[in-house]
Amino acid sequence: MSAATTTASRRYVMTVDTRQCVGCKACVLACKGENAVPDGFCRDWVVEEVRGEFPVLSAEIRSERCNHCTEAPCVKNCPTGASWVAEGGTVLVTHGKCSGCKACISACPYDARFVHPDGYVDKCTFCLHRVQKGLMPACVTVCPTGTLTFGDAHDPDSAVSRLLRTRKSKVAHPESGAEPNLYFLV
Amino acid sequence: MVSTRREFIKIGGTGVGAVALGSGVTTKWWGLDRDVVPDPRTDGDQVIPSFCELCFWKCGILAHVRDGKVTKIVGNPEHPLSRGHLCPRGTGGVGLLYDPDRLKKPLLRRSKKRGGQEFEEVSWEKALDFTAEKLLRIKKTCGPEKVALFSHGYGGTFFKHLLFAYGSGNVTAPSYGQCRGPREVGFQLTFGSPVGSPEVLDIANSRCITLVGSHLGENMHNTQVQDFARAVANGATVIVVDPRYSTAAGKARYWLPIKPGTDLALLLAWAHVIVAEGLYDREYVEKYATGFDELKKHLEDKTPEWAWAETSIAPELIVETARVIAGARPASLVHPGRHTTWYGDDVQRSRAIAILNALLGSWGRRGGFFIPTSMSVPPYPVPPYAAPAKTAQDHPDGVVYPFADEVLSHGVCDATIPGRVGGPGCPIKGWIVYGTNLIQALPQRQQTLDAIQHLELLVAIDVLPAEITGYADVVLPEATYLERWDDVGPTPWSEPFLAIRQPVVPPLAESKPGWWIAKELANRMDLGSYFPWDDAEKMVVARLEKGGVDVKALRTKGVLRGKKVPVTTEDGLELAFGTATKKIELYSARMAEAGLPPLPPYTRHPQPADGQFRLLFGRTPTHTFGRTTNNRFLSEVYAENEVWMNARAARERGLANGDEVVLVNQDGVRSQPTRLKATQRIRPDCVFVVHGYGHESPGLRFAKGRGLDDSRLVTKVEVDPVAGSTGMSVNFVTVEKAGAAAAAAPAAEA
After folding, report:
1. Does B126 score more than 50 pLDDT?
2. Which residues in chain A have Cβ-Cβ distances shorter than 8 Å to B9?
3. Contact A114 B9 (CB under 8 A)
4. Range with the lowest mean pLDDT among B419-423, B683-687, B723-727?
5. Average model confidence (pLDDT) for chain B?
6. pLDDT category, B713, cuts 50, 70, 90?
7. Is the pLDDT score of B3 beyond 50?
8. In chain A, which residue's Cα lies nearest the Cα of B38?
9. Is domain B107-176+380-557 in CATH 3.40.50.740, yes or no?
10. Which of A53, A87, A146 sits opposite B680 (nearest CB)?
11. Architecture of A7-185 per CATH?
């Protein structure tokens, strides 16, 4: 992370380059390994959309996860305060405060949350435990195709800021008003 | 993934979650807990470098070990093949290491017949004594060349060494005759060098990448996919020739959904346009190639219009793509592929690809093919081998294939069945099978099973109870790549480097490293002088020290990189060719001498009849065929193969996406049932499945019964007259709804 912004004023975002992604799911498995995600669950996933009819086809592949929304519906709808906003706008769940009521799961436009077998709601953390050590999230590190970029959108010199300036991008469900922070480069 | 995600949530939410809700409320006053950033604590207290063996690319890894357990595996940033990144399989090494189905103790067969699946757990002592005694008996009664080793994987070096010391040169792998063999022969004949593995492709700097049936991105060789993505990001043009809209096709400017079996017509037509329009690299061809005039003449009638009728690709498109390909030369590469055993004229197709690359001047050029370099280590001194490098035992049906550079696995199979072989003397009597599941890897299963019943000894050395272990007389459980030392050797690449395979954790259960098994067998056969080291670590260290390598640095970093040297003409390399003429042989006099067509002819292959589909098979990114399909961690994202079928063709047959279907081949062989994937992404005359599913071994408790086994349906092959390899995409199937009454099998097309 650049020193240009203080921790408090950072806005962490991730860009997903749909042109480069081959949908190999290295991100899914690296996340599972890094975060000890239990069997049968995942915090990120891959969507393949193919349009058209044989032989005129187009495809888009997206690695998806929690959008760490600026106006996060999960945080607003959490009755116990377990969902909270950490450094850089990262949305986290404090396990001990979570009752597993699933209000956040209903509220999330992105289907990004699940109930961990231990009873709390779990999801992508942007690997904040790694980011705080100066590392990239596990999915970004493993990705063989350079599809994923993570950084501070408030820092104009960051790689994500440069990509968002120079490439066309879109977000999923912009109509939700949640102001998601996962950008798909097209 | 997306469709199953809701299911995950439902399961998690209604079951375990509800139980935990009670405990959460009653045992915790959650309002007072402090917010903390959760740390899953998967960082190791030790981080040990080695290299991967989930496939055969050999990417550098860093294994995190915490309290004696491997928590995660990440890419080694220092290693030139991983560059800090891994494909999904690399991460999944943990799933192999802790697979509950691993072979744990040596086994001796108790059932009367091989394959009866009755085994007795025995001591290593007993298993090794039994094996050595049998091997010595075969050596005495028939001669050492009557034992063959099938070996796939880096750890096989010790067993190859053992077999050569024992006196047999019958070292073989299906990865040659059933995979990359034709490509290596085709390039060897043309450029005097094989393509090798890792392939010597400078994809990252390429401006035009043409893939013919090669599905990069689904075939996940790490560096190659990294380079492919980088080239795409840099705006390289991608041209994909594939009956299926592969992942790579989704990145392509041109997708040519070619009629299967006709690729050679397209390649020749491309060459025709490039020569006729004078788009080839005249200077390069004049300087480095021979036989251009013969080639030009050969191409005269291979017009785009001619190719159209064969391939179904419109002539304008053939001309346009030929110009795009040539327009980017020399940084334009026509990918040689990897699995190339398709139709039986596969060397000729590989030759056509090699010739196209020669016309583009891409061999030895930036953005084309680089000339690899490597860092070698002096050998450990051992006595000279008694055996020749290659014996004459491997001739399928008695036919000799002079250009086959490696022993042919199916030839060894033939040579095991009495009366079928052209090789001298009695049939082969003993098989040592290391890390390759011959049941799924070889075509024509009935022949493999017949051969197995004729053996006097079948030894299987493996990590998992793959089908082949069920047919063994003795099963020797090997430690995984994370638990053992392996030999050290060079990997030819665009820069010199040396990587080390060292244990990350001790072997689990009673599994033993391959080096130990080989040495113990050698000791029992009076071949101990060939294994004079105490253990593999001492042997590797001795070799490294002799070579002046900084052993400590290598063990700490996992890899040492040498000084870069020129690998393309742009770097200042002078090109040289290993052919007889010391030139690129567009016209192959060697082939002419052998009575084979010296320029690639087009052969029209049979096409499926109405109602039939050509069976095509390939890869998914998360698996290395049957080697990994029992890996529960990898199977979290892909657990079962499906049959890809054109959506309209499916609809016409009353089949819908998700239906359970059975494939029935031209010989009436039926597959296991699996789901149908009705999709726009494939031509209506073929079906596609991911290879390596439909396991039947009872020991593979996860993989058993998942998906269908395509290799069971490969009852027919077309043997390549140049390389002796087996073209396997020549089987036709009908598709039935599972459970429907078994219809009479349609007759195969003449």
Report:
1. yes
2. 105, 111, 113-115
3. yes
4. B419-423
5. 93
6. very high
7. no
8. A129
9. yes
10. A53
11. 2-Layer Sandwich (3.30)
Strand ranges in chain A using DSSP code E only, listed in sequence order: 12-17, 45-53, 56-64, 83-85, 91-93, 114-115, 121-122, 148-152, 169-170, 182-185
CATH architecture label of B201-371+570-590:
3-Layer(aba) Sandwich (3.40)
Tell which of A24, A32, A35 to mutate to test the B interface (max B CBs under 10 Å): A24
CA distance A73 to A75: 5
Annotate B654-707 with DSSP letters as a single string.
T--TT-EEEEEETT-PBPPPEEEEEESSB-TTEEEEESS--B--TT-TTTBTSS
Q: Is the peptide bond before B383 cis (omega within 30 degrees of 0)?
A: no
The predicted structure's pLDDT at residue A5: 54
Question: Residues B638, B706: contact at Cβ < 8 Å?
Answer: no
Q: Which residues pair with B616 in a beta bridge?
A: B688
Could you give the angle at the alpha carbon of A72 between the alpha carbons of A26 and B21, nearest 5°?
80
| Alpha-carbon span B748 to B290, nearest angstrom | 43
Q: Quick check: B13 pLDDT over 60?
A: no
Provide ipTM, 2 decimals. 0.96
What the block records as the tokens of A166 is 């120079």
Portions of chain B given CATH number 3.40.50.740: 107-176+380-557
Q: How far apart are CA B214 and CA B251, in angstroms?
A: 13
CB neighbours of residue B22 within 10 Å: 12
Collect all residues with Cβ–Cβ distance below 8 Å to B392 and sequence separation of at least 6.
Answer: B400, B423, B424
CATH architecture for residues B613-737: Beta Barrel (2.40)
**Does B199 score more than 90 pLDDT?**
yes
Distance between CA B667 and CA A124 in Å, rounded?
Answer: 51
Of B1, B21, B646, which is closest to A100 when you measure between CB atoms? B21
The reported pLDDT for the residue numbered A6 is: 65
Nearest CA in chain A to B219: A24
pLDDT at B402: 84
Q: What is the arithmetic mean of pLDDT over B221-235?
A: 97
Going by the DSSP 8-state scheme, the letter that residue B386 receives in this structure is: S
Closest CA to B616 of B335, B214, B222: B214
CA-to-CA distance for A73 and B745, rounded, in angstroms? 58
CA–CA separation, B138 vs B147, rounded Å? 8
Start-end ranges of CATH 3.40.228.10 in chain B?
201-371+570-590
- The structure tokens listed for B668 are 């009436």
Is the pLDDT at B749 greater than 60, yes or no? no
Q: For position A7, what pLDDT does the model report?
A: 66
Interface of A with B in 105-124 (CB under 8 A): 105, 111, 113-120
High-pLDDT (> 90) share of chain A, %? 95
Residue B6, pLDDT score: 38
Record the tokens describing residue B174, joined without a space.
Answer: 């299906």
Average pLDDT, chain A: 95
Residue B4, pLDDT score: 42
Residues in chain B: 750
What residues does each domain of chain A span? 7-185
Alpha helices in B427-558 (DSSP H): 438-441, 445-454, 467-470, 514-524, 536-546, 551-557
Task: Quote the pLDDT of residue B731.
Answer: 98
- pLDDT given for residue B174 in this prediction: 95
Following DSSP, what letter does each residue of B11-67 receive, concatenated? HHHHTHHHHHHHHHHHH--GGGPPP-------S-SEEEEEE--SSSS--EEEEEEET
Q: Are B231 and B203 in contact (CB under 8 A)?
A: yes
SS3 B525: coil
Percent of chain B exceeding pLDDT 70 equals 92
Task: Give residue-wise pLDDT tens across range B460-509.
Answer: 999 999 999 999 999 999 999 999 999 999 999 999 999 999 999 999 99
Contact A33 B31 (CB under 8 A): no
Q: How far is CA A133 from the centre of its chain?
A: 19
